[in-house]
Amino acid sequence: MVVMSHNNEYFSVQENELNDLFLEKGYVLGEVQNIDALEKIRKTVVDLATMYLGQSQPDYEGTLDQIHTNIHLKNLNDMRLNIIQQLNEISWLRVEYFKLARYMLETIVGNELAMQLRINLSIQLPEDDSSLLPVHADVWSGDSPFEAVVWLPLVKCYGTKSMFLLPPEHARELSKRFDDFKGKGSEYLFQAIRDDLTWIDIDYGQVLIFNQNLPHGNRTNRERETRWSLNCRFKSVFSPYGDKKLGEFFEPITLRATSRIGMDYRYPGVQD
Question: How crowded is the C-beta side of 268, counted as CA atoms within 13 Å?
């Protein structure tokens, strides 16, 4: 049973409220801490997409939402991987990405963090059923239950242009009868829980942090615009790891002085 944090005297009122919201809903949604950094990231993505498409003049307002008018579905994943590769070669990207949600991350996850080494990009064209992410929870495939995902839209995401999440209370009920779904596939599971799902509408300029232990995913984008979103996992650096290890998938980013001292300490006379 999860213990709510509202009586924790070590937290401020705002910290208690944010933790309670995350525990109750499975996610928190807030304004990015630096809109200029978000604009810088989006502009970079638009530049890379424009370059890939061989266009000379980037349209920073309409390129992403309307990219489906300029690319064939068969080329979509190649463009996505090309942009991911070039984005992750930019030295400032990960620092700026972290800072967009720093307060919420440090309140919910902790102030000594490990960050996923590579930021991922999702693109979902209208009526595209090849880019679906079937209902799943990351822990089902070996991820640590101590991780949270920072999900950043580069366009306004709403309806089927966004993602869905099964709230914690329903996820707990699902866990009790999970054996009933073995061998029946993700679509069968989706249909069984669809009435309980929360579809999260997210404006450009907002950032989402969600509990990746909860079932989530997306469906065919029935809206008239293309979805673009970045995502990256964070966890407390000293919490247990799953299949994705420190140094292989995660990198420590905010180690404090005493932790560095402790990690480097050797008892007198003990050799490396």
Answer: 0
Beta carbons within 10 angstroms of residue 70's beta carbon: 13
The Cα 48–Cα 247 span in angstroms is 28
SS3 258: helix
Torsion, Cα of 173, 209, 200, 156 (10° steps): -170
Reading the block at residue 19, the tokens are: 């933790």
DSSP per position, 83-110 = HHHHHTT-TTHHHHHHHHTHHHHHHHT-
Question: Rounded CA gap, 83 and 137, in Å?
Answer: 26
The predicted model scores a pTM of: 0.94
Which domains, from first to last, does the chain contain? Answer: 13-253 (2.60.120.620)
163-165, strands of its sheet edge to edge = 198-200, 163-165, 216-217
Query: Going residue by residue through the chain (272 aa), what tens digit of pLDDT does each one get?
Result: 454 556 799 999 999 999 999 999 999 999 999 999 999 999 999 999 999 999 988 888 889 999 999 999 999 999 999 999 999 999 999 999 999 999 999 999 999 999 999 999 999 999 998 888 999 999 999 999 999 999 999 999 999 999 999 999 999 999 999 999 999 999 999 999 999 999 999 999 999 999 999 999 999 999 999 999 999 999 999 999 999 999 999 999 999 999 999 999 989 987 76
